[in-house]
Write a structure and sequence with these properties.
heterodimer; A: mainly alpha; MetI-like fold; 2 domains; B: alpha+beta; Dipeptide-binding Protein, domain 3; six-stranded mixed sheet; five-stranded mixed sheet; 17 helices; SBP_5_dom (chain B); SBP_5 (chain B); Peptide/Ni-bd (chain B); signal (chain B); peptide transmembrane transporter activity (chain B)
Chain lengths: 337, 592
Amino acid sequence: MVAFIVRRVIAAVLMLVIVSVATFAIFFLIPRALGQTPEGMASRYVGRDATPEAIQGAVKRLHLDDPLIVQYGRFAKGIVAGQDYSLGPRKAECPAPCFGFSFNNNQPVWPTLLDRLPATMSLALGAAVVWLVAGVSIGVISALKRGTAVDRAAMTVALAGVSLPIYFTGLVSLSVFAYTLGIFPGGGSYTGLTEDPVMWFQALVLPWVTLAFLYAALYARLTRAGMLETMGEDYIRTARAKGLKERTVVTKHALRATLTPILTIFGLDLGLLLGGAVLTESTFSIPGIGKLVIDAIRGNDLPVVLGVTLFAAFFIVLANLIVDILYAVVDPRVRLS
Amino acid sequence: MRKTNALALAALGTALAMSLAACGGTAGGGGDKTTGTGNTGTGASAAKHNDGYTKVVNANDAKGGTLKFAYSDEPDSMDPGNTYYAFNWNFTRLYARPLLTYTAAPGEEGLKLVPDLAEGLGEASEDGKTWTYKIKKGIKYDDGTEVKAADVKYAIARSNFSEELTDGPKYFAEYLDAEGYKGPYKDKNLDNFKAIETPDDYTIVFKLKAPFSEFDFLVANPQSAPVPQAKDTGLEYEKTVASTGPYKIESYEVGKQFNLVKNEHWDQATDTTRKQLPDRIEVQMKQSAEDIDQRLLAGQIHVDLGGTGVQTAARAKIVGDAKLKDSTDNPYTPFNRYAMMSTKVAPFDNIECRKAVQYATDQVATQAPWGGPLGGDIGSTLMTPTTVGYQQYDLFPNGADNKGDVAKAKEALAACGKADGFETNIAVRGDRTKEVQVAEALQASLDKVGIKASIKKYPSGDWSAQYAGKPDFVHKNNLGIMIAGWGADWPSGFGFLSQIVDGRFIKASGNYNMMELNDPAVNELLDKGIQTTDATERNKIWGEVDKKVMESAAFLPFVYEKTLLFRPESLTNVYVHPAYGMYDYTWLGVKQ
């Protein structure tokens, strides 16, 4: 088991290195291969009327004229050993793990990521609770009431949830519940949990529900399908034949079996969201990782894009690792494969 | 040119009055390019649409409360010396006082420069190459220390001569006689910056390379706000700016939240252009643009910091609701939206082919993407109606309804030797939806006279450095027409025209004179104008330059851009400052 975990951890680290190389290549190698010059890149990060000297200064400051391998090496070294950055009259220290400095606002990337993480975690974890509870419950009820009006209504709502984009449901919910009825605060109201727990909760209700609406719909459909399949298994018939109560049959036997694949997907979905819920954060102006990366992409802020990509990849790889290990715990055959 | 709403172009009194009188919400139609469809101001007691354009709405000097701004992006910097965003030249005045500023008043009065940190306007030497300013005694930073002339000198040195502060304009570097100066970060001895002298603590003398009669406009730029050398932290200074204005920085989380509180060392007696009404000012950044509009309409925030007006959805809602519309103003922005035809790309090297495009263009169709008359008036000149020196004329009338004159276009084509039309390319920034729609409208207009134009889309990030602003690329790719826009940094014809029409400014990259027009007569007029000290004579010259360039038929105006600003009921002391083309942020207060 230990050897298995070690193997998986090494594989996960290698995966992160590959992701970092691939992301770096996408943003630095491909533009250069297409004829982009260091001056052309630097001109994005200086004022519009920048003189050639100012552009050259930016090239030097951002090290854009270095060979790509040197640039990647500096980036990788920064993660391990940190690096310095000129602020003008003095240098700024960026201790390890340093993911570089934003080209646009000259802030170190790593502290920015850490600053944005609580908002993203608040959103993702809260929404995850909502969609897991709601999605699984609706899926189970729908399966048990198969073919009835309740089933059809639940699946119609689920279909709507899957089909409607978050920026639509988000804006509508803001318009109705924040700006018309005034029940919840509007966009841009996110406040840190430690700063004001009540406002934190109130500001996140609409984003939670909006994000969970999409996922709950997916989970309801998955749960329903799983339950229908499981309820037809022989051991369910046996359980019933033994005289077990229907509630016990459903919760202890059918649901337990159905939840295994649901929880696997849940782990991956949560890992993905911890890397940023771009649409929800943008719609509700939540200063999370998703909002950070979309703004960085718009502004060609390559160090931030690179940092967020690695950060998001880390959560996905971590979620995969946990799922793999849990599988190994559940099924010893996995360890041997 | 500033990045979004460059410093608003000032109006000649007549131009502004004309535009104000002519506004009026012409529904439908394309507006009139010879009279404009500007803005109306009514004398009704309750605030009406465009009242903020001509008077102060909700005048009320009650103090207290929190003034809330929101912005869909983040500015380049909150450092007054390192910003080129138009709204920031307005907003930074809350905590930074340049040598001069504009009068706090709507209409033409607001275009007049008045002393701010300085005691008076600049005194020029006889040869126009030396400008002297005396600064007021007793002006203090938020820590209580007194502002000295050397701090102004240092501020200009750092903002114009360092490799790190790249976001602001570099006019001082361009015009000051500072050959060889390496900037204060490489050369700590400020005495080596000889282009500015400070003979005593309250006198500052600028030495220029050549006469420049509009130097007062340059020192109204926030880069002349003083910076104590000991407090300069370079790129991080934006978080700890030494305040001289009515507010000081409480905190700045970059890209998230910027908070100001009252500066107890600011003295109203020394300041004629600002108020200190709210207890605090908060700015939320990186907010959803659509949500900002909803919050404005719901009264949850007071101002959209960007000053570029409401988005399409909110605009539709406002236009359909008379009460909401009464809470809006529809001022001109500093921008002219236009196309340039390259005089170096065939067949546009022939003026008759350029004229064919002028006549063929359906300007109502090219106005539509900007939002119709609310989004801008149809143009016929380079300078906009709110630019000093603007003269109204139309060299290429294209039909009574501005929808194109096919007959005249075909005549011009025949004169060009292309009676059957020709093929060309229209270059456009592909990620700017409105500009792409304009290109499509132009393409359809040209098709009617046999000009087959293909649309080539390029990314806006590299537009100037790699594509339309790079003459070699333009020639190689046969880019005959380029869709662009321009607004000036200070309210004069020179501020608007010099970068886009001076043939000596044609650059190998980052070129804004995409016509590649290098007319010695135009260049000479620009030189003559900037050396002319009499303002009336100077402004006449800018008008001549405008007409001379239009005669080349290489400049195809689409609209004088306008925007729709919303003022919530809770906002007091609201008026559109003509020098910024948005509300005066230093005057605003909030109802309790």
